Backbone:
């Protein structure tokens, strides 16, 4: 490594760089900020630390303080050459003829109109010692040594409040070391003599001279630079850090110096803050290195939709909204930090906020949709108006719900690829369960999903062990993006509660799909097949499927659906009462009497009911094998109503939701049955108590046997 002695370096600074009145030489230690790593070069012992600061171009930056502090603090670039000499062209030092601007109280980092401080590190080593002044004359043209901020948007004209603000506290003025700050102030004051001294009372209305810290690597460093490896008493600036895992769960608070893990987190936090506080903004600069944000309604100028921002201000409004947030990427890391901040607004609350997008609502209310996925869209709109104070349209709220459900349950396309894996997993971890998948278009690849059937082993054993031998079958539509039918088979347990037995997803409800479903169901309950009674709503293709799969089983029709078809031609309370009296009659004689009354009212109504065999809907004609007088298919209707919560989900989410529901329900019923005292279940005991109460009006007659 190249070396140089202390006296040789001092001689070069004094003679070759023309700093004859040299007092002190300072440098910044490698890996530390200017505040924490400033070090005075006093002897050869400090040379190794100085050599570690060499950048990739071979330059070393030192800070020269002239004797007595009567003249400027000067920053020089020196380059270590191959012949162990330190060289630096004199033209890159601060000449006496350099323009000397007036120093203001505040020196914001992010103002593009301010020249660089003399102790600032630049990316170009040939401009490291330059001090560039900027004079902004009211009503005149503006010029700057660094116009990179304006090249991206030549149509934007910043207002006076955007260039300077007395209330805009800055990281430099808040955290700069007091000793070095005073030296720099005196040095800048002495550049042009007493004639350029700071005067706050004169010339501020006409001319403003400003400084800009363009590259703030020396002033705001990373977390690694805040901790010294050599000394434990270094000055460290601990800026707050935004934690996405916790800070998004509460109202967002922005503060000067706040650090964000990435620019994406910063943009997201800014959106949350805008919606919570009822304002809108636009991005003047939106890149990977910096983000500049201004109020969208800061003046009365029209909004340029094509560019997505405000153009040159032509309204001449004096009272403009001063809101501004400027963040930049920290040196050598992905962290973004707020460098300039003006939060107060004078433009009022925004009811229709463009930053409140459907994606924002989906992310913010993700946990809400996870628990309340069946909530209607209009209810969600009222919730947003109450909590956020923002009016959201129906379609935006609808898309927010759909995106949230997609985040929770995943893409439906991906789930169709995993049906075989899911089926094998259920059969592996729940032995004895029946899970079957049927594909279509097998002969002409690629095959497509067609049907999926599931009957858990616990449901199967429970039905065979203690349920009534009657099964209701029904189907309902799926409400998701992919159409289909959900077929269910439900029985009743010993306490007359519904008992889900099997379920399947099919492409359509017809004879072929019902035959496939009943055939798999019969194989699972084959030991009790001879005593089983099936009840249905006479769906399309189901009656033919019964005749094919279980030709000898008792088939009942739901009387409520028969009445629904009957009242289309013969409506009225009189027909309703007489119909249900005929259906509930326990004897044939009573049934025939009620049918005669129907015939007197309408011959057509009597003929319509006579076509339907009485063994399917009349209680007096039911077979006594199942020991049940059930006339309605309410068990399936009740279960289908429960399935509303999952019918809009993808295929595997539906199957998994039903499986978990059955598991929880069985556990709850088991705990409830464990608390029952006596030999009778609560439903049977309730019927006996009701019968005993009604028997008080009966008279006991002796039969003389």
Residues:
């Amino acid at each position: 490594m190249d070396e140089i002695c202390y006296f040789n370096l001092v001689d070069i600074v004094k003679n070759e760089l023309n700093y004859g009145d040299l007092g002190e030489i300072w440098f910044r230690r490698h890996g530390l900020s200017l505040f924490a790593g400033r070090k005075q070069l006093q002897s050869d012992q400090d040379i190794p630390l100085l050599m570690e600061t060499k950048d990739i171009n071979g330059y070393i930056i030192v800070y020269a303080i002239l004797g007595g502090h009567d003249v400027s603090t000067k920053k020089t670039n020196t380059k270590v050459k191959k012949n162990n000499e330190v060289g630096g062209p004199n033209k890159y030092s601060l000449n006496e003829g350099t323009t000397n601007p007036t120093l203001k109280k505040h020196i914001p980092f992010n103002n593009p109109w301010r020249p660089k401080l003399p102790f600032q590190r630049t990316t170009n080593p040939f401009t490291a010692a330059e001090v560039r002044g900027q004079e902004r004359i009211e009503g005149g043209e503006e010029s700057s040594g660094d116009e990179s901020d304006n090249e991206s948007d030549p149509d934007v004209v910043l207002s006076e409040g955007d260039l300077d603000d007395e209330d805009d506290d800055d990281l430099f003025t808040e955290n700069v070391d007091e000793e070095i700050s005073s030296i720099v102030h005196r040095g800048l004051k002495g550049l042009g003599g007493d004639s350029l001294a700071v005067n706050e009372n004169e010339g501020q209305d006409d001319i403003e001279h400003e400084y800009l810290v363009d590259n703030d690597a020396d002033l705001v460093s990373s977390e690694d630079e805040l901790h010294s490896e050599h000394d434990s008493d270094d000055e460290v600036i601990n800026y707050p850090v935004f934690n996405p895992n916790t800070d998004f769960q509460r109202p967002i608070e922005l503060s000067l110096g706040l650090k964000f893990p990435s620019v994406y987190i910063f943009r997201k936090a800014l959106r949350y803050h805008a919606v919570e506080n009822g304002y809108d903004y636009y991005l003047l600069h939106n890149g990977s290195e910096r983000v500049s944000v201004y109020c969208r309604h800061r003046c009365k100028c029209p909004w340029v939709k094509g560019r997505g921002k405000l153009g040159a201000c032509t309204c001449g409004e004096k009272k403009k909204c001063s809101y501004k947030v400027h963040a930049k990427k920290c040196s050598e890391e992905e962290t973004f930090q707020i460098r300039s901040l003006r939060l107060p607004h004078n433009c009022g609350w925004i009811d229709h906020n463009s930053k409140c997008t459907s994606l924002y609502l989906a992310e913010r209310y993700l946990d809400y949709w996870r628990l309340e996925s069946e909530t209607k869209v209009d209810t969600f709109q009222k919730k947003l108006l109450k909590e956020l104070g923002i009016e959201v349209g129906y379609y935006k709220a609808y898309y927010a719900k759909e995106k949230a459900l997609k985040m929770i349950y995943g893409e439906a396309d991906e789930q169709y690829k995993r049906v075989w894996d899911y089926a094998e997993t259920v059969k592996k971890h729940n032995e004895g369960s029946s899970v079957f998948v049927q594909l279509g278009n097998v002969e002409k690849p690629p095959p497509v999903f067609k049907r999926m059937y599931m009957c858990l082993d616990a449901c199967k054993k429970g039905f065979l062990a203690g349920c009534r031998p009657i099964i209701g079958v029904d189907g309902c539509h799926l409400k998701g993006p992919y159409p289909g039918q959900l077929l269910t088979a439900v029985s009743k347990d010993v306490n007359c509660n519904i008992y889900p037995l099997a379920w399947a997803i099919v492409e359509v409800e017809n004879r072929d799909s019902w035959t496939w479903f009943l055939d798999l169901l019969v194989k699972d309950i084959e030991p009790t097949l001879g005593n089983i009674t099936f009840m249905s709503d006479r769906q399309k293709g189901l009656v033919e499927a019964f005749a094919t799969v279980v030709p000898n089983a008792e088939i009942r029709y739901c009387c409520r659906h028969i009445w629904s078809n009957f009242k289309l031609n013969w409506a009225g309370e009189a027909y309703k009462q007489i119909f249900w009296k005929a259906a509930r009659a326990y004897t044939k004689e009573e049934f025939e009497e009620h049918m005669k009354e129907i015939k007197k009212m309408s011959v057509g109504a009597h003929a319509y009911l006579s076509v339907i065999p009485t063994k399917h809907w009349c209680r007096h004609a039911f077979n006594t094998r199942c020991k049940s007088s059930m006339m309605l298919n309410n068990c399936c209707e009740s279960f289908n109503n429960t399935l509303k919560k999952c019918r809009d989900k993808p295929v595997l989410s539906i199957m998994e939701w039903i499986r978990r529901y059955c598991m929880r329900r069985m556990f709850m019923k088991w705990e409830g049955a464990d608390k029952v005292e006596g030999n009778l279940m609560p439903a049977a005991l309730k019927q006996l108590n009701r019968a005993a109460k009604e028997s008080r009006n009966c008279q006991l007659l002796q039969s003389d046997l």
